[in-house]
UniProtKB/TrEMBL annotation:
GO terms of molecular function: 2'-deoxyadenosine deaminase activity; adenosine deaminase activity; zinc ion binding
Protein keywords: Hydrolase, Metal-binding, Nucleotide metabolism, Zinc
Function: Catalyzes the hydrolytic deamination of adenosine and 2-deoxyadenosine.
Protein's recorded name: Adenosine deaminase
Domain of life of the organism encoding this protein: Bacteria
HAMAP family: A_deaminase
Organism: [Clostridium] cellulosi
Residues the entry annotates as binding substrate: 15, 17, 171
Gene this chain is encoded by: add
Length: 339
């Protein structure tokens, strides 16, 4: 086993609905009478993942339509959540935060709280089976009303310290800037739920500033466009805001024009709090091992720099203090063992 394979890893940014196993999609569809364009696993991957020709975040997001049809029952929600943890554990991920939008999983009449409960119980089953610790992040959606998003925040507040790590804002950033969601995230901050916001991905650096200063984000999903404004780079640096960077996904959504032009190396060298994550293992056809190999081969990250990224991620985890300290000390120990 090579170093990257053996290395304990942390994935802070993984979408449940973008990470379904094709076989599971087929089995759930058969079970629940959902029509699929094909029942062949390989063929189905074409509908579930983007190729090299993806043009934008909007096109990328279309790949979630089919999996979401298969995430409407309690059984499916629990199963998929458990499998997300199992899949992470296969690549030696020791801690994963899995995110999902409860409002997109209520077609059969469940409440947001029902959905969150189902996913968390699946995550905890996976945690029990594999030893990989798993927490949920629930996403508000940019195209949803404040009322719908406030419902998500209130439901999330019931699960604080009970499997829930934090809340997020996801969806079409280019058309819905973060300032529209001030009322929603004021509510999250009122409850003391940690906030991460997708920003600086399909929108500019200013969105990252607003997410931090107005929405109270303590982490940023991607944030790769901060280099468009030096004052935002400085803000992220001064506040040590963790950036949840997902390199493969960023190139696919055209947030970065190519691997060569992706700023992950530059941000790391600037001393920013960089973390590297999968985003969507199925849509992006990736996993943590693959992402770290890309960093090594395309960006020249050394083994010790890759370990540094895992420590950054562990420090940024939405865990309470004793849990985080335990995770950090386990990571340190296993790094010492594998060097
Ligand atoms: Zn994301």
């Amino acid at each position: 086993m090579d170093f990257i394979e053996r290395m304990p890893k942390i994935d802070l940014h993984n979408h449940l609905d973008g990470s379904l196993r094709p076989r599971t999609v087929i089995e759930i569809a058969r079970d629940e009478g959902i029509e699929l364009p094909t029942y062949d696993e390989k063929e189905l991957m074409k509908y579930l993942s983007v190729g090299d020709n993806c043009e934008s975040l909007v096109e990328y997001l279309e790949k979630f339509d089919l999996p979401l049809k298969c995430l409407q029952s309690e059984k499916a929600q629990r199963r998929v959540a458990k499998e997300a943890v199992e899949d992470a554990a296969k690549h030696n991920v020791k801690y994963i935060e899995v995110r999902f939008a409860p409002q997109l999983m209520t077609e059969k009449g469940m409440t947001c709280a029902d959905v969150i409960r189902n996913v968390i119980s699946g995550l905890l089953e996976g945690e029990k089976e594999t030893g990989t610790i798993a927490r949920a992040i629930v996403c508000c959606m940019r195209h949803h009303s404040d009322e719908k998003n406030l419902e998500v925040i209130r439901a999330a507040s019931e699960f604080m310290y009970r499997g829930l790590g934090g809340v997020d804002l996801a969806g079409d950033e280019a058309h819905y800037p973060p300032q529209l969601f001030k009322r929603v995230f004021d509510e999250a901050n009122k409850y003391g739920i940690p906030v991460t916001i997708h920003a600086g991905e399909a929108g500019g650096a200013e969105n990252v500033r607003v997410a931090i200063e107005e929405l109270g984000a303590v982490r940023i999903g991607h944030g790769i466009r901060i280099n468009e404004d030096e004052s935002v780079v400085n803000l992220v640096k001064e506040r040590k805001i963790p950036l949840e960077i997902c390199v493969t996904s960023n190139v696919q959504t055209k947030a970065a024009p190519s691997f060569e032009q992706h700023p992950v190396r530059k941000y790391f060298d600037l001393g920013l709090n960089v973390t590297v994550n999968t985003d969507n293992t199925t849509v992006s056809n990736t996993d943590m091992k693959r992402e770290l190999n890309i960093l090594k081969n395309k960006f020249g990250f050394s083994n010790s720099e890759l370990m540094q990224l895992q420590m950054n991620a562990a420090r940024a985890a939405f865990l309470d203090k004793p849990e985080k300290e335990k995770l950090l000390s386990e990571l340190k120990n296993s790094f010492e063992n594998i060097i």
